[in-house]
Amino acid sequence: MIIEKTLFNIYKSVSPEVVKSVIPVIDRIRRFKNKPPIPRREKMAEVDFPDFSTSKVIMLHGVSVGEVQSLENLVKKIKQEFPDCKLVITTGTVTGQELANKKYAQYADFITYFPLDVYKTVEHFLNKINPSVILIAETELWPNFFYCAKEKNIPLYIINGRISDKSYPSYLKIKNFFKLILDCTQGVFCQSEIDKERFLKLGSPISKTEVMKNLKFEIAKKNCDIDLKTKGYKVLIAASTHSGEEELIIQIYKKLKEHIKNLKLIIAPRHLTRLDEVKDALFGMNYGLRTLNDNFDKFDVIILDTLGELSKIYDIADVAYIGGSFNKDKTGGHNPLEAIIYSKPVISGPSIKNFRDIYSILEREGAAFVVKNEKELYNCLNKLFTDSGFYKEISANCLNCFESQQGALDFVIEKLKFLK
Predict the structure, then answer these.
(1) Residue 164 binned pLDDT confidence (cut-offs 50, 70, 90)
(2) 318 lies in which domain range?
(3) Are residues 385 and 415 in the same domain?
(4) Same domain, 92 and 164
(5) CATH number at residue 309
(6) Cα separation of 338 and 355, whole Å?
(7) N or C: which end of the chain has fewer CB within 10 A?
(8) Which pLDDT does position 166 carry in this prediction?
(9) CA gap 310, 338 in Å, rounded
(10) What is the percent of the chain where pLDDT is above 70?
């Protein structure tokens, strides 16, 4: 531990001036990779802060899009349970910041970037925010930030904690360094027993490390008031599709329909600005539109050309293909849980970077499939639609998986009761 403490002290001694001199170089590299420049003023905490000196402040951090999305119900619940507290939300990426401002402007009292992990910068940031408690989502382990929070006696919790299969071997090699960081926390609350064991192996104190389950599963079913006349039919939904995916799904659908005569298809494009492109892909086929109240008694395919109905239309489908996972742009996939909550098996293509952690859970529990190519997609869909025993097994897995991950929201709120 002597070596780790020495390295930490060296790391702690880096000045803001040194970091500022390096940022232009990093920005040039980022520009070469078509990435936006570092928001220097925000990251160096050189912005105008609200006056929080007389308030109780809850600080909530989610680094990027996935984490920011997972905090939605927690943000709303915090404002409901602790109306007298101020809420500060921080993110680490540009896309995370954009989403936080879009989703939480009406709930948060201040939205900004998480500071760069420079001791003097962090100290200035915490002095201005003056948090009563800090909640860090998933795996953001910043030495100076954690150490400074401990120095100031600010309770800091890791919530929804997870350590990926990919990262874990690397983390183990420097576990003594992570132990120094984790010792600064008031609690480490993990998504699963596997994550708990990994945090413990990295030095998280046993008395402070618990399983809280997963905030991303804290969603509720929506009442489905849509009637597409599905009785007697088997329904595949291709949800949140992007350019090129409609052609893929249509080709597979036609092949399946050769021997599954009662198979129907719903196509829900991610962006309605592509509606003409979707119609072109369906040229020569018998399709209708949701806006015209068309249904499966007259049409084989229905295009969901409305806003706000996708999350409930899963209720009337049998199997869901989640788009943004086979398109050329490699979007990174979309949320599979909106289908899983209705116990509907999910299939995705290989591009799932936006929801990789969710798919790892779903695959482990046998509730979803991530396929590599068109052949695997066809075979998986064919088995789900033709093997009733297999379908029932996967549907039951969806229900069990979802229920096993519930409870995280109430867990966190209970830990914050000391603020009342």
Answers:
(1) confident
(2) 234-404
(3) no
(4) yes
(5) 3.40.50.2000
(6) 13
(7) C
(8) 82
(9) 9
(10) 100
For residues 96, 405, 187, 16, the Cα torsion angle rounded to the nearest 10 degrees is -10
Q: 157: which strand partners? A: 135, 187
Q: Report the alpha-carbon angle 132-135-139, nearest 5.
A: 150
Look up tokens 């830990």; give the residue.
415
Side chain identity, residue 372: K
Please give the angle made by the CA atoms of 27, 30 and 32, to the nearest 5 degrees.
Answer: 115
Q: Which two tokens stand for residue 316?
A: 């009337």
Give the count of domains, the chain: 2
User: What are residue 135's DSSP bridge partners?
Assistant: 60, 157
| Whole-structure pTM value | 0.84
In this structure, what DSSP letter does residue 344 have?
-
* Strand 301-303 with 187-190, pairing: unpaired
The answer to whether position 223 is within a domain reads: no
Measured between alpha carbons, how far is 265 from 317 in angstroms, rounded to an integer? 9
The Cα–Cα gap between 268 and 302 comes to: 9
Pairing of strands 263-269, 234-241: parallel
Average pLDDT estimate for 196-212: 96
Which pLDDT band, with edges at 50, 70 and 90, does 349 fall under? very high
